[in-house]
Write a structure and sequence with these properties.
With about 425 residues, the chain is α/β, with parallel strands linked by helices. It has 16 helices and 12 strands. The protein starts with a strand and ends with a helix. The structure holds zinc ion (ZN). Keywords: Plasmid.
Length: about 425
């Protein structure tokens, strides 16, 4: 099972100065920054997915600046991402249209022809047909037929199939180095199985299942089972945007060839608790909560408190500084756990001060949080991981603060997840 990382310009500055909280001297954006596969000793994924929606174009801006967009089109995806086939042999360079970014339009803004052109310019090895998201999903037994669903759903289904038919021909002209992938959308397991059968009949032997992001794992299981029943065994399956990565066994059971996700990276700073990943000796994923020490001068919550007059910004800055020093001193062996926690929790109390809340509830919340942070600090997980993030950044990667720490922690998570997946593959 291959893990494809959906990139969204997720780079870090390798020269970032944690003590001064600033970029390395003379750093140029992108040129001096590093992608996870450049920063770590080994690439933490088997391929990269780039969405047209993220790259953008003149009519539909994405995340790339105009200069980056031009360079991407001129140099191709591999050079832009510094992910050459020679260094990463057999890796996938996959493209899709990023259907979520245009979900509210009546039709995709891209045609089969210009999508194939985008993949050709980018030197992609795999590319998806331009699909249109369907958000409905029938409960078991409801299975509406195509005449029972709303017109919008029917249109999206037909557009996706029509585009796939045109894209198969446009993509086939790109030659043997390119594998066109037909995207499946549907509102039920039956409609998705029908779509899969149609795509296989068009000639596709690699299909991508879309629209599964809001689905629960048992719904995904039903979709995969229906797919496997409908398709000849030669047809490979890719799951687009698979977030439920604790459920890898479902993918393995139904012979999924590949999936893409950003979850390990994103959860480092979007999850409330599961920020730093580890594997237990028995081979399961386990998690630690990162210690939140936001920048006092940048934090909106603190700015608001300063405006209300409930917290002086200078006081906040001193608490922030003490919290950072407390954690660092503990990590270096110059302070006890309790001393480190005291400093962290003093800042936490200022950040979370709410005069509407009773003193006893405040104390309960603080005790709970202290326990969570104590778990993280007591185990010193940064000392048990050999990845470059943990070797170089140490406890800084466990501090929830600024993109360079948060993304480093995400890159560590990618490393842990990729290791987990490769061990998982073992019989
Ligand atoms: Zn690590």
């Amino acid at each position: 099972m291959r893990f494809i990382f959906a990139d969204s310009l997720d780079t870090i500055d390798p020269g970032y100065d944690f003590l001064a909280d600033r970029n390395g001297a003379g750093r140029t954006i992108h040129r001096d920054d590093q992608y996870p596969h450049e920063f770590l000793d080994d690439a933490p994924y088997d391929g990269i997915l780039v969405s047209r929606g993220i790259v953008g174009d003149a009519r539909h801006p994405g995340k790339y600046s105009e200069a980056q967009l031009m360079r991407f089109r001129r140099e191709g995806a591999r050079r832009f991402l510094r992910y050459p086939e020679t260094r990463f042999p057999g890796s996938m360079m996959m493209g899709d249209c990023g259907a979520f970014t245009y979900r509210n339009l009546p039709a995709p803004p891209y045609s089969a022809e210009d999508t194939a052109e985008f993949y050709a310019d980018g030197g992609f090895t795999h590319g998806c047909s331009p699909d249109h998201l369907i958000f409905d999903f029938d409960e078991p037994g409801a299975d509406r037929s195509i005449t029972d669903v709303p017109e919008d759903v029917r249109n999206r289904y037909e557009i996706t199939l029509q585009n796939a038919a045109e894209f198969y021909h446009a993509g086939s002209r790109l030659g043997g180095g390119f594998t066109p992938m037909g995207v499946i959308q549907g509102w039920s397991t039956a409609s998705m199985a029908d779509a899969a059968r149609s795509l296989a009949d068009m000639g596709y032997d690699y299909l991508a299942i879309g629209g599964t992001v809001p689905l629960k794992i048992d719904q995904i299981r039903r979709v995969l089972a229906a797919m496997r029943n409908a398709l000849p065994s030669r047809v490979r399956l890719h799951l687009l945007g698979f977030g439920k990565i604790e459920e890898l066994s479902a993918l393995e059971e139904f012979g999924v060839t590949s999936f893409d996700t950003t979850s390990p990276l994103l959860r480092a700073f979007k999850d409330a608790k599961k920020n730093y990943w580890m594997r237990t000796p028995s081979g399961d994923l386990s998690y630690y909560t990162a210690i939140r020490i936001p920048q006092a001068t940048e934090n909106n919550k603190l700015k608001q408190k300063a405006l209300e007059g409930s917290l002086n910004q200078e006081d906040a800055r001193l608490l922030e500084d003490a919290a950072l020093k407390g954690v660092r001193a503990y990590a270096a062996g110059g302070a006890t756990l309790e001393q480190g926690l005291d400093a962290v929790m003093d800042y936490w109390a200022a950040l979370n001060w709410d005069e509407e809340v009773s003193p006893s509830r405040r104390a309960d919340a603080a005790a709970k949080q202290r326990k969570v942070y104590a778990d993280t600090l007591t185990d010193r997980p940064w000392e048990h991981c050999g990845c470059r993030v943990c070797r170089e950044a140490g406890v800084e990667a466990l501090i929830f603060r600024t993109s360079n720490r948060n993304k480093r922690r995400g890159i560590h998570n990618l490393h842990v997840f990729h290791t987990h997946l490769s061990e998982f593959r073992q019989p």
